[in-house]
Amino acid sequence: MSLLLAVPMGAKAQQEAQQWFEQANAAYNAGSYDSALMLYNRITAADLESAPLYLNMGNTYYKMHEYPMAIYYYEKALKLDPSNEDVKTNLAIANLAIVDKIEEVPQSFIVKGWKGLGNALSGQQWTVLSLVAFALLLVAAFMFLRSRRMGLRKLGFFAGIFFVLLFALSVVFASQQKRASLKEDQAIIMTPTVTVKSTPNEASVDLFVLHEGTKVEILDQADGWNKIKIANGSIGWLQAETMLPF
Amino acid sequence: MKKIFGLLLFIVCVAPMTMRAQDTPTLTVSAKKQVVVGERFQVVFEANAEGKNFSAPSFEGFTVVGGPFTSTSSSFSMVNGSMSHTVKCTYTFALQAYKEGTFHVGPASLTVKGDKISSEPFDIQVLPDDGSHANASSGASGGNTSQGSSSSNTNDPQVSGKDLFLKVIPSKKTLYVGEQMMLTYKLYTKVPVSSLSVDKMPSYAGFWTKDISDNNGSLRQTSEYVNGVEYTVAEIQKVIVVPQRSGALTLDPMSIECIAQVRTESNRRQSNDPFDIFFNDPFFNRNIVNVKKELSTSTVTVDVKSLPANQKPDSFAGAVGNYNFRSDIDKTELKTNEAFTLTLTVMGSGNIELLQMPEPVFPPDFEVYDPKITVSPNVTAQGLSGTKKAEYLVIPRRAGNFNLAPVEFSFFNPANGTYSAIQSEAYSIHVEKGSGEEGDGSIYASNQEGIKYLGSDIRHIMTGKAQLKPKHSVFFGTPAYFVILLAMLLTFIVLLLVSKKHEQQKQDTMANRNKKATKVARGRLKRAEQYLKVKDQDNFYIEMSQALWGYIADKLGIERSKLSMDTVSEAMKEKNVPDDLTKQFIDTLNSCEFARFAPGSAEEKMGDLYQKGIEVITKAERVL
Q1: Which residues of chain A does B470 touch, with a Cβ-Cβ cutoff of 8 Å?
Q2: Which residue has the higher pLDDT, A243 or B17?
Q3: Of A14, A86, A131, the CB nearest to B484
Q4: Do B461 and A55 touch (CB under 8 A)?
Q5: Residues 6 or more apart whose Cβ sits within 8 Å of residue B404
Q6: ipTM for the assembly
Q7: Number of A:B CB contacts under 8 A?
Q8: If B543 and its partner were Cys, which of A123, A179, B238, B528 is the partner (CB 3.0–4.6 Å)?
Q9: Domain tally for chain B?
Q10: Is B463 contained in some domain?
Q11: Pair (B177, B286) in one structural domain
């Protein structure tokens, strides 16, 4: 399947990037974080990405005590692989090192469960699952249509219903994750202290103060200003250059 | 003092003797040879004869504050009948030095009886102000070095700063943060001091201080020479200060108030009373006046250097001085729930009281009590030193072999400006399972315990395959994805069609066989009938059996290879053939097979079987 998914690109370039990755990991293990970061950046500059790469970059920034950047890369890794336990753990630890502690708006268990289910697999895994479910659906349908044995036909019928549902679900989640990964609608604050305004205007009312490393959701954009929403539901406007969207 | 006395002696004793000779008039000069900038002093020219036209030298380099004050005295004496007349003329100048250097004072001249006499020229060295004179020079009638016969008027009860001053002596001017330094406050006096009280103690901002003066009532007195003048010195206070931050730190002045007892010569009352005379003797006749005087030290600025940042050991916790470090353990072989004691000892010179003891790291299964810390400081002339001990009482709760890592103690030695680190011994402790494991059930109800987490950190990086792919490449929803779905769907449809066609063909052959089944059976039955007529038993049964089997196989669409009684009855049940007909058919088949392999059956049996066969086939024809 991975062969199928890999959009053809220079196999040599891929190999080279893998080498950089290994060199960077060795540098990280040796504690020379600057050179590790340089090598990781070389990979991203080649327009390549992966959850392990972003996790390692986040770790490198964490070790350099640049927590906002660490959080940024952990979030990026989580976007590619929402179920990665290592990334989740490290993000939680990095979030302890920043100034702002925001109480999240409690979500109903249905929403939570739906989101949890959607993030149980990565987008790529959902895609693969949708194809497998479709194939099995066809097998079940064939069984139902063509079997002369009553038992097999019954099995085919119920399996068909199950695989239809599974296919639909995986298509929904895969498309959700695709939309999320293509849209840069979240950001990490990179300026040590910023004041959130009520309108996209410097002269407007100060609403609240955020510090570097805080994650915000970008709701809207207007001439260099972003309308942002933080985890507790508060909304305001911030200048776009204060944050790094992902 | 001695010089002055010498001079006096000269004046008192030698001069009259020379006078007696009465031969040559002389002009002598007396003055200090060394003065300090700002100091006031006297230059006295003395002639042993009356003269006139006294011309003073130009006091270059000095300011003439007063003078010349002239005084003349003459005395007559009769010794052995010869009378001698002594004359003494003095010309006194009060000078003040205002710049340092060596200045030449030229000769002064006087005309005595027509002869011009001159004094010896001399040099005065003016020394730089060393600070101690800042207060000293403010005295009113400076330079009254002797209160003896010179005619200075000390009737006003004042004590000059030269007679009484307070001085602070820091043991060093530059030092490191944390390095100790001694400040000694000394009172220099030439007059008796009856009492003193400290007005203002310095605040010592930025310093840790410890007063180490042992003034249990009386002040230790010594004598000391300052600029060749003897002073009685009393140590008022001795303080050890330890700077806590770097930079130029200023020590505030200390001010004290003391009462000096100044002796004043009383106005000599002329009286004939011998007692009066006696008590008017200069030895007794001195009124003592108490003069209140406020003294303060000058401010002292010390340059505090911060500790060098390079080569600072990790274990460095601010200890400055020169130390030794060691550890002791009372036992290394013990049983669980027995205690052992680990003692860390730091000894040496430095600020031992503020010293932070290094902390040993014990295995997590050890119960460690807070250490008992004892400090035995020792104050010497060199400053603070002493011993600091930390005793750890440790109880291992689990059996096993444990290693106690060595403890490192590091300090900065200001003497050579380097850091030193001393490691204590490493111990390996063997703990055996004690017998009293159940004894402390109150503490440990069960031997189980949760995992102790010693720290937290981020998870390690992912190594191995990077699984890199181009950015924003999501396979879902791409044409390739749909192509795969479509391909699967097409495969499905093709398979479905192929399977349908196959079924069709199969069904076609079945229908064929079904159609032909009756015809074939009829032919076989006809041949059986002929065999029946010729009484050919073997061939009759073969034909009968084949007619029956063949018919049912073709009718039910059962393949010949799978043909058996069971498959037939099952297939007939599937086709909803009535049970009695199925039974009848199977029975006929059975009896046919039986008759075929059991020879010697009756002829009428053959006819009966033939009838039965025709009957079941006809009945089955109706149902199937």
Answers
A1: 7, 9, 47-49
A2: A243
A3: A131
A4: yes
A5: B329, B342, B360, B361, B362, B363, B426, B427, B428, B429
A6: 0.79
A7: 116
A8: B528
A9: 4
A10: no
A11: yes
